[in-house]
Structure formats: structure tokens, C-alpha cells
Amino acid sequence: MNDSRQITTLRAAAVISSTIIGVGLLSFPRYMAVAGNSAGPFVALTGVLVSFFSFWLLASLCRRFSTESLFVFSRRLIGRPLAMFFTLIIWLIFMTLTGLTARQFGDVATSVLFNKTPIEATIFLMLLICQLSARRNIIKFSYIHFFYLPLIIGSVLVTILISLRNVDLLNLQPVLTAPTASFWKGALEASYLFQSSFVITLLIPFMKLPKQAVRAGAIGIFVSGAVYWLIALACIGLFGAEETKLLIYPTLETARSAAIGEGFLERLDALFIVIWVISVYTSIYTTYYLASYLLQNLLGLRDQRMTSSAVLPFVFVIALLPENVFETYTWSLMLGNVSMLLLLGYPMLLWAVYWLRRSGKRGLS
Amino acid sequence: MNKLLRKIGSVLLPAAVISLFLAGCWDQVEIEDRALVLGLSIDTAPPEKAAEEEQVTHLKNTEMPKEMISITAQIAVPGRVPLGPGSGGSQDGKISPVWVVTVLGHSLDDAMNNLQQQIADPRYLVHLRVIVISQDIARGRMDDLDDYLRRNPEVRRRTWLLVSEGRASQFMDVKPPLQRVPTLYVLSMMEKAVTSGKFPPDYIGTYWSADSKWGQSAYLPYVALRNKENILINGLAYFSQGKMINTTQPLEIGAFMAVEGMDPGGYSTLFKTKELGMVMTKINERYTKARSFIRDGKPVLSFDINFEGDLDEHYNGKKPADSTARLHEIEREFERNAKGVIGRLIRQTQKDHADIFGMGEIIRAHHPEYWRQHIHNKSDWEELYGSITVDFNLTLHLRRVGLKKT
């Protein structure tokens, strides 16, 4: 038993961080600018807090069942059929999320990097790599994330720091905005990016100190939240809110206009895209892993090796479903809405049952 | 037997898989096979020219807008663009490192497609550094350009967009002696103007950002050709309602940079003083503090402009410039003089409803309540800008006088 508990708190935090930093990085500032104009970074901050709340709800529940994953103990709490039903829905969500993320990745790669490479090839290769690495166990999974995280955060920070030199503070004022409907919409959209912090449910049974699950999530969410916040700050500060709204990938444009030493080193976008591909890989890897793990759970298999292969064609088809870029975005937002409801609602339901049962037991004894 | 087969298989299979990765890149294009566009100029063309246009993106009988543009592209000829210092070979003077092609079109993309139809190698805009447009284009139809260049992932935001006096295509033909590739000369000229404080870093990205902001109007470098070879930075071409409306004098670039507080200072001013004769001062540093108020329901802006400078030239004077008091005298005279220049520039832009200083952005940032009530789009602010009050104070500190004591 002790052997399997190998994931330290820091490593769990790294998994969550590198999962969250992903494909949304490129278009994130646009959503923030639309929601809050110059107060975009403030909207992002609110989004981080919202997502931390929903994470806390889930993680503090899982912490109480530190030897089992969510899908196992939920069967005892609300009964097998209902638990299976919810697991099925969560599985569908992560299947779709994996597909749409891979599609967004393919869209960016085709329009910016490889004009002639068919998008199917880009998407398929990305998914294939995820499939191959998803055959590993959860310990190796956490090591892979831990290995890539410094690369991702380091290079993103370098890009941001270079562009911060050219930030016009006027673009970021007024800093605050009235909490209007569009403000909350933006904050929720920001929190969608953090939904894959759900992966903590897989990690808890393997953590050295499961009691620190919430702390690991807090570190993970706030580190990645800081990255997103800084990106929004740099983009809106550099271009102004109105221009940021016009650009489809504002973060990429920031990297493209960054230069060290007046043209000595230009076009950092090439470097940035390479790192971005890695960050997309780590997030698709997580959602893919979740999808295959959930399928294994549904079918009652021993491990996720076989299901990881079974998932591949379906995810690939989902990735090819959207008609165009705009459809990909609307679908992603819709998916975000649905999983927001579920990831808030399901833990709340479990909490309610948990308290009911506990008080029931106390009443009996 | 079976064992042997498995052994062979275990060697062959990885080899087969690895060989897949040896195929190289799907998108690879050798650098010799690319037509790298280094510079681009865009002019208007008369509507009659439509008859001469090739039917590449549309046929003659389709309905098209009347306006035509003519673009001239400077394409790098592979192998002839010199890398590093020239060896003084005999070829250098004769063979041009660039190929200049002119095509017609209705829009920029249309013209680019016509261009592609005429050259063998696929064109790439990744190394496009300078775009020169003529005044007619700037005054008429910027949205086509803005759209195509923003949309194209090959175009950098650090490209220079210049507005030319006269035809823009002349700039593609200059053969300056300082650089062998003409557009690289224009580029290094603009870059050096930025580092020496002669011009603000106004790349195409800066121009787009200003164009999108509600509280600011965009401006571009205004250049002219002198003696067929020399390129002169002739002022700022500024925009209102998305169209170029007027230009400034070169000295007014300095005035503009002073109001913005852009460092380093680069302009020198020659003026006549009452008792000290002719004086030239050189500005080394500029620092500006902007404040804003709402007075009687109208925005008021006040700028505190500070200069640090040196005495550069002094002649024809009755008195020597040899004491603090004399320097102060010069400073006051300069301030009076510069106030006139800056005041004139601000009044001119107000008359043209072009807020190149971004004063609206200051109001938006510091008085969001007022902004939300009164400004609902960009033209609201440009309209209001004409009637706001702008105060400014100037202070010059002369620190050094050079190597001559009097």
C-alpha cells in the first residue's frame, strides 16, 4: 500500500498547474477584454477564485475518502446506478473536452505553423502521443507533468516579462469594473479553463499526504492562475482592450511583437509556439488519461491500458466534428457551461448525502 | 524458426516506424524556392486600369468596386542578397539584390494573387519589413489594408508602415549607397530615428492599437523623397475617423514626443533670442506628467513638460552665454518658443479632430464615470476632442554648454 502512495503534494500541484495551462492560453485575453475591457485582469482574478471554490468543494470531499477515487466511493454514497450515471456523464464531458482541445490545437497549428500539413495529421499525432503515454500508471503520469512544468512556466514568463516592458499603464485603467452580467460571464469563462483540476480525484488515492489535496490544488490553481492573469495583463496592457478584442490569438500576437534589444532577437512566436505545443500536450494528456480511466471504471476493467486505445478513434472523430473555428469556440463554451454545472452540482449532491448519512449514523448511535 | 522470425520482426518493425520520421517536414520549402517580399509599396491606380488587370481572382464581368491599387514589391533574389560586409567584388554594383515587380488589383489580396500568378516561387511575407503607402491610399481606404495585414499570420506587428508624399512606388527604386538592399536602408533609417529620439516607435502594431482605441487617433510616419535618393522623415501623417486627414512638420514630431514625454530627446531647436542672438538648444531628455480634470462638464488636460538639454550653438549675440543667469535667459526664451510650437500642434489636431496624443485614453482611465456617460464610440471622442481645454507648462534645464566657455 505504501508503495503506491508516491505522489508528493508539490508534484500533485505541478500536475494541476500544467494541466490547466493549455490551449486556452492563446485566446484567453480576448475573452477577458470582452468581459471587462481594461479591467480584464480583474475578471481573470475573479475567475480563478470561482474555480478555486469549485475545486475546494470537490477536493475537500475526496480528502475524506483518501483511499478511494471519487468513482468508487460515490457508489457507496448514492448507490451504484446513480453513481454510474454521473460517471458516464463525466466521461462524456472529458471525451468531448479532449476532442475539442485537440481540435483547437490543430486549428492554431494549421493557421500559424503548418499551412500544408493536413489538420487530421496534426491532431492524430497529438492524440497518438497522448494515447501512448496514457498507458503508463498514475505515478509516471505525475512525473511527466512535473518534468514539463518548469519549461512551460519559464518560457511563458520570459515572453510576458519581455512584453511587460512595452505595457502602457493607461490601457489597464480603470483597474476595477462594476460586476455586470458580462463581467460574471467572463469570470465563468475564465473558470472553465480550470475545470481539468478535476484530475485531483485521480491523484488523491496515490498521494503521500492525501490530507494536503486542497493545498496542492491551491498551489496548482494559483500558479497557473498567475500565469493566465499575467498573460491577460500583458496583452491588454500592450495592445489596449479594443485591439485585444479584434485579435483571435492575442497571446500569440504578444509573442510576435516581443523583441529583445530593438530587433536583436525578434519573432519569439516560434519559440513560444513550441512551448505552447508542450503545454497543450500536457493538458490533452490529462483529459485523455481521465477519459480512459473513467471508461475503465465504467467497464470494470483492471487498468486503463486497453481503454486508452479504445478511446482514441472516438476522440479523433469528436475533434473533427466542428465545422469551423467559430463552431469550435461555441462548442467549447457550451461544454464549459455543462461541466460547470456538473462539477459544481455533483460534489454538492455528494456532500449533501454525506452529511445526511453521517447525521443519520449519529442519530442511530 | 519462430524465434528467428520474431527476432527479425523486432528489428524490422522499429526500423520501419523510425523511417516514417525521416520523411521530413510536410511544409518544408527550401529558402531558394521562396520569393521573400522585403518591401511593398501601395499606390492608387486610375479606374481605367481595370482593363489591364489580369483575371486571376475574378473575371471581367463580375461587379467590382471602381478603385484600383497598384502595388510594387521588392523581392529578394536568392543568393544575391549580400550577407555581411561586401568584399568589394566587381558584381556588386551591377546586379541588383532585389527584383522589383509591379502589379494591379482591386484590393491588396487581389494584387498579391496577381503577383503570385506572375512569379514562379511562392511569395512569403515573413520578411516584410517596410510598407510604403501613398497619401491617396491613406486618405481613402485603409480598412482593406488593415484587414489583410492583420489577418495574415506572416505579417509581423513590428513592420513599418510609412505614408509617402507623392507616389509610393518611388521608394522601391531608390539605390542608397549606405545599404545594398533598398528596403533595409529605409528600415534602418526608421529604427535609428527611434533610438536617437527623432521618431516615436510607431510600428504597424502601434498604429493598429491606436486605431482601435476610442480615446486616441492613429498616426503614421510621413516620408518624402529628396534628390531621388534621400529619404526624409517629413512629419506625422495623422488620422481621424480611420482616414488620414493632415500632416505635421518635422519639428512638430519633437513637439508631439514632448507632450507624450518620450525619451530620449532628439530634436534641436534654433531660435532668436532678444539679447543673446541666435541660439540652438539640443534636448536630451523629455519627461511629462499629465493630469486631467472634469471642469464644468468638460474634460481639461494639463501637461507638465520637462526637458533636459545642452546649449549646442550660439552666435550673433551681443552678450556671451557664460553664467547661470544667461542660461536661464535662454531657457525662458526657449520655453516661450516651444510653447508656441506645441500650442500650434495641439490646436491644429483639435481642428482636425485627431487626438494623436491619446488624451481621451487619459480621460477614459482616470474618469471612467464621465467616459461611460458621454463617449459611446470612437467618433464621439474625436468630436469632443475639438472643444476640450488643454493647458501645458514647459520647463527646460540647460545643463552643459559644450567645450566653449562663452
CATH class wording of chain A: Mainly Alpha
- Helix amount of chain B, in percent? 25-40%
Radius of gyration of chain B: 28 Å
Stretches of chain B where pLDDT falls below 50 for ≥5 residues? 87-92
Give the helices and strands of chain A as they follow along the chain. HHHHHHHHHHHHHHH
| Share in helix of chain A | over 70%
Mean pLDDT of chain B: 85
Q: Can you tell me the CATH architecture of chain A?
A: Up-down Bundle
Whole-number mean pLDDT of chain A: 87
Indicate the low-confidence ranges of chain A by residue numbers: none
How many domains is the backbone of chain B divided into? 2
Structural class estimated from helices and strands of chain A: mainly alpha
Describe the structure.
- Chain A contains 15 helices and no strands.
- With 365 residues, chain A is mainly α.
- Chain A has one domain: Amino acid/polyamine transporter I.
- Chain A is globular, with a radius of gyration of 21 Å.
- With 406 residues, chain B is α/β, with parallel strands linked by helices.
- Chain B has 2 domains: 196 residues, no CATH class; 150 residues, Nutrient germinant receptor protein C, domain 3 (GMP Synthetase, Chain A, domain 3), CATH 3.30.300.210.
- Chain B has 11 helices and 13 strands.
- In chain B, strands 1, 2, 3, 4, 5, 6, 7, 8 and 9 form a 9-stranded mixed beta sheet that branches. In chain B, strands 10-11-12-13 form a 4-stranded mixed beta sheet, with helices on both faces.
- In chain B, helix 7 crosses helix 8.
- Chain B is elongated, with a radius of gyration of 28 Å.
- At the A-B interface, helix 5, helix 11 and helix 12 of A face helix 5, helix 6 and helix 9 of B.
